[in-house]
Design goal:
This protein is an alpha+beta fold. It contains 3 helices and 2 strands. It has a two-stranded antiparallel ribbon with strand order 1-2. It is elongated and about 45 Å long.
Length: about 80
C-alpha cells in the first residue's frame, strides 16, 4: 500500500486513514517507533508487551486467557 502525505511547517505528517485503519492505530496513546534506514524513514507501531497489557487489564495473562480471548473474537466475527 502506497499513500502520500505532506509535511507541515512544524514537521508534522498525517498518517493516511487507510494505513491507520489497516494497522489499528488509535489517537491518544498509540506510539510509533521512528527509524532511519539509509535515506528511508520507517514508522512502526510499538506493540505493547505482555507486562504492559497485564498491568492495564489488571489480570494474569496466560495461554488460557489468550485462547479464550481469541475464541470470543472469532465468535463475534
Amino acid at each position: 500500500m502506497i499513500e502520500k502525505t505532506k509535511i507541515t511547517r512544524n514537521y508534522q505528517i498525517t498518517i493516511p486513514a487507510a494505513i491507520r485503519k489497516k494497522l489499528g492505530l488509535r489517537v491518544g496513546g498509540d506510539i510509533l517507533i521512528v527509524k532511519l534506514e539509509g535515506d528511508r524513514i520507517i514508522l512502526e507501531p510499538k506493540r505493547r508487551s505482555i507486562t504492559e497489557i497485564r498491568i492495564k487489564l489488571g489480570k494474569r495473562i496466560d495461554w488460557r486467557y489468550v485462547e479464550e480471548t481469541i475464541r470470543e473474537v472469532i465468535e463475534k466475527g
